[in-house]
Amino acid sequence: MPEVLKPDSLKILNNPSQEPQWREDFPIRWENDHYVTRRELAKFLTLGSAFLVIANVVMAFFGKFRGAEQYPRAFVANASAIPESGSMLFRYPTDRDPCILVRAKSGELRAYSQTCTHLSCAVVHRAQDGVLSCPCHMGLFSETEGRPVAGPPIRPLPRILLDQQGDQVFAIGVEV
Amino acid sequence: METRQQGQTMFTGILLLIGTVIIVQLWLVGASMDALLAHETEILIPAAIISFLGLLLNAGLLYYIHDFDKRVRRSNPAR
Ligand code: FES
Asked: Does domain A74-175 have CATH number 3.50.50.60?
């Protein structure tokens, strides 16, 4: 007589002490799974924490050992060429660094990097308000000190140090 | 309550702690980057030290988790 194959689900009826088939297929309980997932997440987060420390240490290292930068002396313009409330664009210390020379309301010449300290758009001189204005997000910087006075920027514009010899104006450094 | 269940609750608490420390560390990285760009270098070293202390705290908590796990396995080797 041929042997009758019983379906798996019937095994449990024949032997109630045995675990059902699905238990063999899915042997891990929910709570055990959560337990392991949380343990692994803790490991992963601690690794992330280590990376953040590395980032901080690298920045501290750069800050400590970055030597004082040397800036060239470069001719910018003749002072007489900048009218009252006027401005002029130039590049300093390299050709990739746009700067702006402005004659403030007080009559003094001031120069700043033209790169906005928010998201690097180019600032323009708004002489009637005595500010340098960034059109991207309406950031405003004072024309006399370069500090932010409105909008999203929180850092002042890097200031270009000037040296005037007679009528000639030279850039001699950058003050961040 | 079963030990593993207790562990699960405890791990959730510890994860929250670790997460909080990481948020503080993220903030420190952001603040340090801002300071570096503004050439305010004096806060960079204290920020790195505080971040490192955060890592030590996280590592301590992770060690505790491992230790707890080891004890659970020892008391119930089948799992
Ligand atoms: S880029 Fe200048 S305000 Fe945003």
From this structure: no
User: CATH 2.102.10.10 occupies which residues in chain A?
Assistant: 74-175
Per-residue pLDDT of B4-17, as tens digits, reads 667 778 888 889 99
Interface test with B, best of A46, A57, A64 (most B CBs within 10 A): A46
Per-residue pLDDT band at A4 (split at 50, 70, 90): low
Print the domain residue range for B42: 3-75
A118 CA → ligand 1 middle, Å: 5
3-state secondary structure A85-135: CCEEEEECCCCCCEEEEEECCCCCEEEEECECCCCCCECEEEHHHCEEEEC
Note the pTM of the prediction, 2 decimals: 0.59
Domain count, chain B: 1
